[in-house]
């Protein structure tokens, strides 16, 4: 294992929300043994205390890394979202504090897609209300309102990783697939791009949502969009809770305009198992309610644990930011014979020449330099041949450059 200038065993890794043990194993195997593990999200004040001296933090969808929390985390240098969504982290705040955020963009894709397909079948067969009735002792043996999915139209809103997987699986059952996306997308199989969101809504028997949480997707399915859906059609939401106006959905399900829904994500989700789940959908028999488990399978969680831990370890050991969601991406070779310095700065004119001025002392040779910038920040990695003392001194001088956000000497 290559040496690092700051001992790995002194770096605190805070793991929250029961991330997979595969993450713990990966950190330990890489020499990171100072792990604080919590199997649930921490209440706000406990989170503030736990994150204060953490160097890396791993979380899922419940923990909110707000400006306040990030501000408290004085030593934090990387965040791992052990999931796809990263809306729970104030990404801009993290970036401006020199903190890259990583996620697992594909590891639970298949799990969500399988659940959605199963829900489409169950909704088309009106299983939710038959199941609820049977639990109460009623025997709803009837074909009324029950249909095969074969030959029906599935409308996919957000044709990204999950949306395309859902489309491929749905076609294998003989469904017709329509999609809507703000980007131009490669159509898989026989999928067709709808002319507009409304065109998709009015042509689909089942509509399923797979967009990220952004300002544009907030309440994108409201009363008007629901009214545009076919009478007797179904809605599936396994994206984010605020994409659907939940009161408008409840009203459409009560009035019978929509025949059913499957909802995995909610505007307000309980923070822990002990907190009551409150929703206007709770007393509706024609709704399948699941507690945000679209990506919760053994396979997905194990893969996510390994994937995100590997990204955090790579950044910590080597400086690589490949696939960070809020940061300039730099893929770095190993450089065992050099010392490696990281300099994260505001992207202002003249910064690189100031960095190079500091590194151009007589006893120092620059072996390699890697720079990437985005609109706001720059990330430069400098490999130098120098003694440890000289490298430490360079790090101090780099830190003193106006506009510096963070400096680290990796090894
Ligand atoms: N229920 C669960 O447990 C899980 C939920 N998710 C949610 O699913 C979302 C989607 O995941 P992926 O498919 O992997 O993401 P992705 O980024 O691959 O795909 C999202 C697609 O939505 C499109 N899009 C964005 N804004 C849009 C808009 N306003 N209108 C139409 N299309 C729009 C994008 O262009 C993209 O094609 C995640 O952001 C996450 O919030 C993800 C995993 C598990
Ligand atoms: O597993 C989780 O906690 C969240 C899953 C999810 O919603 C995501 O991956 O974006």
Automatic annotation (TrEMBL):
Ranges for domain ACT come to 340-411
Record keyword NAD present: yes
| Annotated EC | 1.1.1.399, 1.1.1.95
Catalysed conversion reaction = (2R)-3-phosphoglycerate + NAD(+) = 3-phosphooxypyruvate + NADH + H(+); (R)-2-hydroxyglutarate + NAD(+) = 2-oxoglutarate + NADH + H(+)
UniProt pathway: Amino-acid biosynthesis; L-serine biosynthesis; L-serine from 3-phospho-D-glycerate: step 1/3
Q: Which residues form a coiled coil?
A: none
Q: What InterPro entries does this protein's entry cite?
A: ACT-like_dom_sf, ACT_dom, AHAS_small-like_ACT, D-iso_2-hydroxyacid_DH_PdxB, D-isomer_2_OHA_DH_cat_dom, D-isomer_DH_CS, D-isomer_DH_CS1, D-isomer_DH_NAD-bd
Superkingdom, natural source: Bacteria
User: Which keywords annotate this record?
Assistant: NAD, Oxidoreductase
Q: Which family does it belong to?
A: Belongs to the D-isomer specific 2-hydroxyacid dehydrogenase family.
- Described function: Catalyzes the reversible oxidation of 3-phospho-D-glycerate to 3-phosphonooxypyruvate, the first step of the phosphorylated L-serine biosynthesis pathway. Also catalyzes the reversible oxidation of 2-hydroxyglutarate to 2-oxoglutarate.
Indicate what this protein is called per its UniProt record.
Answer: D-3-phosphoglycerate dehydrogenase
Source species: Oleiagrimonas citrea
Q: Which gene encodes it?
A: serA
